[in-house]
């Protein structure tokens, strides 16, 4: 990460504790319901894997890939489906699992899209929420951490496809030297 100044924003220990709490809350709320977790690739892959193991009711899991950032730190504003779900969501309770909500463009598009397919309910679980940057208002049902307006990497989240494997979440800033 030599091209950046970096700082731990959320440690792996804090993440682990929060993911457990979110899992407990989701377990309680979806008792007796058929829950389908929809992870948004690639950023949410690591969060999805940890969260799913902290949910103690049977769930199904599917994934979508939607990209608006490409290799940039700025959203292009155009949401593109790269990989669609394998399964039908009609009549299912969907919980979208995201790593981060920034402008809200990705999730605004996705919630509309899944509701139109006839899901019984569509809720959102995000590990990180950066509310200062919101352009589209999306209702967040389960939220891990509210973070300041800083570009972050780690625990699945990338900059130009790098740093997803870092166990902690870092904020990064281009260094001046
Ligand atoms: O609220 P927004 O401004 O739309 O930003 C949030 C989205 O951007 C990132 O995905 P990205 O498009 O970078 O794909 P990736 O998950 O493969 O990194 C992130 O994982 C969210 O899906
Ligand atoms: O802060 C961020 N980091 C990486 N990807 C992102 N996509 C939206 N916001 C971010
Ligand atoms: Mg990305």
From TrEMBL:
Its principal location? cytoplasm
Q: Give the enzyme's main class according to its UniProt record, as a single word.
A: transferase
Q: What is its EC number?
A: 2.4.2.8
Instruction: Give GO terms: molecular function aspect only.
Output: guanine phosphoribosyltransferase activity; hypoxanthine phosphoribosyltransferase activity; magnesium ion binding; nucleotide binding
Q: Which residues form the Phosphoribosyltransferase domain?
A: 12-159
One annotated Gene Ontology cellular component of this protein: cytosol
Compartments reported by the entry:
Cytoplasm
A GO BP annotation: GMP salvage
Q: Which Pfam families does this one have?
A: Pribosyltran (PF00156)
Q: Reaction catalysed?
A: IMP + diphosphate = hypoxanthine + 5-phospho-alpha-D-ribose 1-diphosphate; GMP + diphosphate = guanine + 5-phospho-alpha-D-ribose 1-diphosphate
The UniProt similarity line reads:
Belongs to the purine/pyrimidine phosphoribosyltransferase family.
- Function of the protein: Purine salvage pathway enzyme that catalyzes the transfer of the ribosyl-5-phosphate group from 5-phospho-alpha-D-ribose 1-diphosphate (PRPP) to the N9 position of the 6-oxopurines hypoxanthine and guanine to form the corresponding ribonucleotides IMP (inosine 5'-monophosphate) and GMP (guanosine 5'-monophosphate), with the release of PPi.
From the Swiss-Prot or TrEMBL record, give the protein name: Hypoxanthine phosphoribosyltransferase
């Amino acid at each position: 990460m030599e091209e950046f100044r970096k700082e731990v924003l959320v440690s792996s220990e804090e993440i682990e504790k929060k993911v457990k709490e979110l899992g407990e809350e989701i377990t309680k709320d979806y008792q007796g319901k058929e829950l389908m977790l929809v992870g948004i690739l690639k950023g949410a892959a690591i969060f999805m894997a940890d969260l799913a193991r902290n949910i103690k009711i049977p769930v199904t899991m599917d994934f979508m890939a939607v990209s608006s950032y490409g290799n940039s730190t700025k959203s292009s504003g155009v949401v593109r489906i790269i990989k669609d779900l394998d399964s039908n969501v009609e009549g299912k309770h969907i919980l979208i699992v995201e790593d981060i909500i920034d402008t809200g463009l990705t999730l605004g598009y996705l919630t509309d899209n899944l509701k139109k397919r006839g899901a019984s309910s569509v809720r959102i679980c995000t590990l990180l929420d950066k509310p200062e940057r919101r352009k589209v208002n999306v209702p967040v049902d389960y939220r891990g951490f509210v973070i300041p307006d800083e570009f972050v990497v780690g625990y699945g989240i990338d900059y130009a496809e790098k740093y997803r494997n870092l166990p902690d979440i870092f904020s990064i800033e281009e260094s001046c030297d």
